[in-house]
TrEMBL record:
InterPro entries: HypE, PurM-like_C_dom, PurM-like_C_sf, PurM-like_N, PurM-like_N_sf. The lineage of its organism: Bacteria, Bacillati, Actinomycetota, Actinomycetes, Kitasatosporales. Pfam families: AIRS (PF00586), AIRS_C (PF02769). Residues 185-330 form the PurM-like C-terminal domain. Residues 61-172 form the PurM-like N-terminal domain. It comes from Streptantibioticus cattleyicolor (strain ATCC 35852 / DSM 46488 / JCM 4925 / NBRC 14057 / NRRL 8057) (Streptomyces cattleya). This is [NiFe] hydrogenase expression/formation protein. Keywords: Plasmid. CDD domains: HypE. Belongs to the HypE family. GO terms for biological process: protein maturation.
């Protein structure tokens, strides 16, 4: 006769995992490139063991290395956005601004870029010319030079017109060392402006949607804004540009790296009305929608007012706002206070709500 005795099995929530671990994913899925939990898992379980070193382990937007006595920031990124041109920018703008901004998040002054073009056979040269001109214009606006590059062509049907890869280097001033691990309880969390415009701008063109008002990408270089912030607060604790995965992912990454909690006030996060309306229509959370010209800063409390004023005096920071603080409670978690007076956990997304946005 079967044993029908009930047994109580201890439940350990810390052992729960969703999605299943990398070893249970035999193939790459779109979410692996989305900047969320799947991307983090891919990096942790595949790339870090393969490349493992202390510089890479810091997991910053760009690596800070010392060469010949100089502190350099070094970063690389690839761009596969669809469509190539969208309201407010193009893949060329993104390729420059994205890498420039990654360097700036390490406190560096961006200086030089490389640019690699991967072209699909059959793409019109007029399209390639428009992209190249956009790269040149964006580089000039950011105060950097494209000093080297590469071109490859893949067979028709094996690409999507134009993909770009950019790498960049910049000089990190002495005494400047923002990184996710340096956030501490008491830090004030500041965002440089309204969030969510880039992802919604891409989606509106891709799907032919209208939301009652034009949504334009926020793509912009942030090197000058960071310099203005460092001028009044050289010891900024952490900086991040919330691209894939949006503001929520950046906050989560800093909370995890520093072992502290982050509390934000949902109504204090600036979201354009058109973005809010579009997110409501599409069932998206604006905290997870990508940006390409925004940053989030963790600032010592005694310098917060000075940093906020410096940001608002700069064009790309005119909409800066305090959205929360770093706390000792719930280490590694991001919590939002809602307009109804409750709280909710702002978790790391699995992938990205809108793929192919950068």
């Amino acid at each position: 006769m079967a044993d029908t005795t009930s047994h109580t099995v201890p439940v350990d929530p810390t052992a729960w995992s969703c999605p299943v671990p990398l070893r249970d994913h035999p193939v790459v899925v779109t979410g692996h490139g989305g900047g969320g939990a799947l991307s983090a898992e891919l990096t942790e379980h595949l790339f870090l063991p393969a490349y493992g070193n202390t510089v890479l382990a810091a997991m910053a937007d760009s690596a800070t290395v010392t060469l010949g006595g100089a502190r350099l920031a070094f970063s690389t990124d690839s761009y596969v956005v669809r469509p190539l041109f969208f309201p407010g920018g193009s893949i060329g703008d993104l390729a420059v601004n994205g890498t420039v901004n990654d360097l700036a998040m390490s406190g560096a002054r961006p200086a030089f870029l490389s640019c690699g073009f991967i072209l699909e056979e059959g793409v019109e040269l007029s399209v390639v010319r428009r992209v190249a001109e956009a790269v040149g214009t964006a580089a000039a606006a950011a105060g950097v030079q494209v000093v080297t590059g590469d071109t490859k062509v893949v067979e028709a049907g094996h690409g999507d017109g134009v993909y770009l890869n950019t790498s960049g280097i910049g000089l990190v001033p002495e005494g400047v060392a923002p990184c996710p691990q340096r956030a501490v309880p008491g830090d004030v969390v500041i965002v440089s402006g309204p969030v969510g415009a880039h992802g919604i701008a891409i989606m509106s063109v891709r799907e032919g949607l209208e939301f009652g008002a034009d949504v334009v990408s926020d793509t912009a270089p942030l090197g000058g804004l960071v310099e203005a912030m460092l001028a009044v607060a050289p010891d900024l604790h952490a900086l991040r540009d919330p691209t894939r995965g949006g503001l929520a992912t950046s906050l989560h990454e800093i909370a995890t790296a520093s072992g502290t909690g982050v509390e934000i006030v949902e109504r204090d996060v600036p979201v354009p009305d058109a973005v809010s309306a579009a997110c409501g229509f599409l069932g998206l959370d604006p905290l997870y929608v990508a940006n390409e010209g925004r940053l989030v800063a963790f600032v010592p409390r005694d310098r917060a007012d000075a940093v906020l004023a410096a940001m608002r005096a700069y064009p790309h920071g005119s909409g800066a706002a305090v959205i929360g603080e770093c706390v000792a409670d719930h280490p590694g978690l991001v919590v939002a206070r809602t307009s109804l007076g409750g709280t909710r956990v702002v978790d790391l997304p699995l992938g990205e709500q809108l793929p192919r946005i950068c």
